[in-house]
Design brief:
It is built from 12 helices and 14 strands. The protein has 328 residues and is α+β, with helices and mostly antiparallel strands. Strands 1, 2, 3, 4, 5, 6, 7, 8, 9, 10, 11, 12, 13 and 14 form a 14-stranded antiparallel β-sheet that branches. Strand 2 and strand 3 form a beta hairpin. The protein is globular, with a radius of gyration of 22 Å. It starts with a helix and ends in a 12-residue tail after the last helix. The C terminus is likely disordered.
């Protein structure tokens, strides 16, 4: 057999194995309900379990939970125990009403596989937080800011675009956006302090406008943590950095106002609050639309600005409330 014929035979075998694998995965996930093609295109969402599991492209699976109460543990301390990546979204209304959601993202090929991952992580979370799994309908209603009920059955039958139906249209400028009648903006943290003196989230809670805080946490391998710590030691010529625990973290803020003048004032106030604690924060220049959609979708649509941050600092950012100092 010549070299060309051998290469073709290998290629055919690879294609055959790939098709067999794809067939096995389809069979393993056949209990899930597929979404309309227009939703696949707009959200990369492939199928779902009505009880509350979303399956996205590239073997990505998500569940959204309502956080009922926290035991006082910091978000960093419990997130480091999990296999999943975590998004915590705190939604604060203009009258001070507040709802907190946690989105877990697992990776795997089949539903049976990721159900095990979710169950293991849910047990770990339950030691520190009281949570309840949101159904698909409950999640999409929350994404729609509770304006109207959501029915997955109606959406599937009508072949509707879930993104268009549930996520408000965002018209962006370079550093701000319009969402329906509101003027809004998203900001992200570029740099974190070594320690916090005050409770920045509590100050944001008192702003008097609609604010959503998106807080992403993902574990780092032990080897990567040691390498990063040693890099910091060399950069700052200070010992002890390699002993610190780090997580990959993203901290974003979205707010809505009734006028552009109010938006500009709120932007300056938020930057002032975080700058006083030595955060470096800035508008999401050129990414206002995708940032706003990611935050308002509770992380179903993903955008993050990840940085390596110590667990100690992450614990001090009081996104969950109910911390040991009694703040809420």
């Amino acid at each position: 057999m010549g070299r060309g014929a051998g290469s073709k035979a290998i290629s055919r075998e690879e294609k055959r194995l790939k098709k067999e694998k794809e067939k096995r995965i389809r069979e393993a996930n056949r209990m899930l309900i597929p979404v309309p093609k227009i939703t696949v295109a707009s959200m990369k969402l492939v199928s779902f379990d009505p009880a509350g599991t979303f399956r996205f492209e590239r073997d990505c699976w998500k569940r959204v939970y309502k956080v009922r109460s926290a035991s006082g543990i910091g978000a960093g301390s419990f997130a480091k125990e999990l296999k999943a990546s975590v998004r915590i979204t705190t939604v604060i209304g203009s009258e001070g009403e507040e709802n907190t959601y946690m989105t877990l993202t697992e990776n795997g090929e089949t539903y049976d596989e990721v159900r095990t991952y979710f169950s293991e992580d849910e047990e770990k979370v339950a030691k520190h937080l009281e949570i309840s799994l949101c159904s698909i309908d409950e999640t999409m209603k929350a994404v729609n800011r509770n304006k109207e009920n959501f029915s997955y059955a109606s959406m599937v039958r009508g072949k509707k675009d879930w993104k268009k139906e549930c996520i408000a249209e965002v018209v962006e400028d370079v550093s701000s956006f319009r969402m329906e009648a509101d003027f809004g903006e998203t900001l992200f943290v570029m740099q974190y302090p070594e320690t916090l003196k005050g409770d920045v989230v509590e100050k944001l809670r008192k702003m008097g406008c609609e604010i959503e805080i998106a807080y992403d946490l993902d574990s780092i391998s032990t080897a990567d943590q040691i390498d990063f710590g040693r890099t910091l030691e060399q950069k700052f010529n200070r010992r002890g950095k390699s002993d610190l625990e780090f997580l990959n973290s993203s901290f974003q803020i979205m707010f809505l106002c009734d006028s552009d003048d109010a938006r500009a004032i709120v932007e300056k106030t938020i930057i002032s609050i975080l700058s006083a604690e030595d955060f470096v924060i800035a508008p999401s220049i050129g990414a206002q639309k995708i940032a706003a959609e990611s935050i308002s979708s509770l992380g179903l649509l993903q955008l993050t600005y990840m940085r390596n941050v110590t667990v100690d600092v992450l614990d001090q950012i009081n996104v969950l409330g109910g911390q040991e100092d009694g703040s809420n």
